[in-house]
Amino acid sequence: xxxxxxxxxxxxxxxxxxSNVSAATVxxxxxxxxxxxxxxxxxxxxxxFEARVFKSLTEHFEKMAEKLPENQTLKVDxxxxxxxxxxxxxxxxxxxxxxxxxxxxxxxxxxxxxSNNETLIKDEVNVKDMGFMQSSGLRYKSKSFGYEKKxxxxxxxxxxxxE
Length: 163
Prior knowledge:
Layout: H1 2-21, E1 25-30, H2 46-65, E2 73-82, E3 86-90, E4 93-97, E5 105-113, E6 119-128, H3 146-159
Parallel strand pairs: 1-2
Antiparallel strand pairs: 2-5, 3-4, 5-6
Helix pairs in contact: 2-3
């Protein structure tokens, strides 16, 4: 039994490390979040909600970068976030109301660097998804910030499409 556990643990370690081998390195910075258009929570403190948004979207950038060659580095500097929906007062409680009028947007600059730290591509982008409620089958429907992740997926696919 002990050998089986050691073997399973070793196999798991190899599989986990192998999944990261082909991924590019990602560096995400969040510049002046106090000036972001809309990164408010209904019920959670702003500080904790921001941390949750930053963690979730940083992890999503890392997941997308798995499609890039391992010797590359993707640097992203987020300068504005406007989450899908809007926080409105509902009596004593504040809740996020999601309507097509309040579409998700993000402003950021990015650089893709090669192994010699030379810039392969860089740009400043302002992504938005004005039709976010019309799309069929939200891939991240049970995940936090699903509309924003879908919007980033579309940007990534268009920007880094194979030639």
